[in-house]
Design brief:
two-stranded antiparallel ribbon, alpha+beta, globular, 12 helices, Beta-lactamase, disordered N terminus
């Protein structure tokens, strides 16, 4: 298998010119790994390595559930775009005219333009939260979304507030995504978990995925444990994330690859399960400030343009990346704090093995 035998030498591996995937995992102390490779707008193959839990020794399989962390954000964004498409609110509507159970203070900021769903989901709304969400121990009291946004107990982070005018700068904001979550649920009148299941996960066929926080008992037994940078247990198996849209998706590499393919196919004019082609274009078209579209980061690598999102939760790391036009991509999920080193290694190997245009040089005329 090409992926197994080709790859750059890792640091401090004297004389090692080829390493197996388990050797890479051992070097970086990442216990479990799941990979799904996209080719020709379909999952070409999926495979798992290592263990889901160092305490039990349970093997990681393609059915093991990992936390998607911030890769939850584009999945949640698709639901808000569905709400726009069916007329629940406008993508460029003042969010305070959508919200009914909470209100964004001090908006508009200094007489500037309104905060809108578009700016909230592209990290250009002007919210100033610089924190990530650390999550909560299983069984701990969980805050409501309103308590999260106001920084009120039992929330473990500060309040989400405006610090600049919308579209004046890009500033990554999980808090902004949570404002959009509550706008979506206020407008639809349905719990977020149900919206995501009925509008996105179900139609796309992401049958192993859920935004349940905390998980139901039958799902818990399928989960990977989160591990620290030494590949060790940290006590709790994982943290609970009431910040569902920002960090709350449990999924598999295969399911998340199905989501990436849904975007690719729809943008390419193929039949869609969720959005029209015009609406899906919003997910891959940068808003004009920063690198984000509605949900995804958009980047040029070599001669190709890609939409992508990574994720970092307590004990979990992942990446999801796909080409805008050529029908290939990759999802990598890990259950260790050093997982990004492994995901980058896998990404490099897949790009070489499949001839991605990340490696292409500009044609000189």
């Amino acid at each position: 298998m090409i992926l197994e035998v080709e790859g750059p030498q890792l640091p401090n591996r004297q004389g090692a010119d080829s390493l197996t995937i388990p050797e890479v995992m051992t070097y970086y102390r990442v216990p479990g790994l799941s990979v799904a490779v996209i080719h020709d707008f379909a999952i070409h193959w999926a495979k798992s390595w290592g263990v889901a839990d160092v305490e039990t020794g349970a093997s990681a399989t393609n059915e093991t559930l990992y936390q998607a962390a911030s890769a939850s954000k584009p999945v949640a964004a698709m639901a808000s775009l569905k709400a726009v498409e069916i007329g629940r609110f406008g993508l460029d509507q003042d969010v305070n005219t959508i919200l009914t159970s909470w209100r964004l203070p001090d908006a508009p900021f200094e007489g500037g333009p309104p905060v809108t769903p578009r700016t909230l989901m592209s990290h250009t709304s002007g919210t100033g939260d610089g924190f990530g969400f650390p999550g909560y121990e299983p069984g701990a009291p969980l805050p409501t979304v309103q308590q999260i946004l106001d920084g009120q107990p039992p929330s473990n982070v500060g309040p989400v507030r405006l610090v600049r005018r919308p579209l004046s700068a890009a500033h990554y904001s999980g808090g902004g995504v949570m404002i959009q979550q509550i706008a979506l649920t206020d407008a639809v009148g349905t719990p977020f978990t149900d919206i995501m299941q009925n509008w996105i996960l179900g139609p796309i066929g992401m049958s192993s995925s859920t935004f349940e926080q905390p998980l139901s008992a039958d799902r818990e037994k399928l989960t990977a444990r989160g591990h620290n940078g030494l590949g060790k247990s940290m006590g709790a198996r994982w943290h609970v994330y009431p910040e569902q849209a920002a960090a709350g998706l449990w999924t598999t590499a295969t399911d998340l690859a199905k989501f990436m393919i849904e975007v690719q196919r729809t943008v390419g004019g193929q039949p869609s399960s969720v959005l029209t082609r015009a609406m899906m274009q919003e997910m891959v078209t940068p808003v004009g400030v920063g690198s984000y579209a509605v949900g995804f980061s958009i980047a040029r690598y070599g001669e190709g343009w890609y939409f992508e999102h990574g994720g970092s939760n307590w004990g979990f790391r992942c990446i999801s990346i796909a080409h805008l036009a050529k029908g290939y991509g990759l999802v990598v999920m890990t259950n260790g704090d050093n997982g990004h080193s492994v995901t980058q290694e896998i990404r490099d190997r897949v790009a070489r093995a499949y001839g991605w245009d990340t490696l292409d040089k500009p044609i000189m005329r």
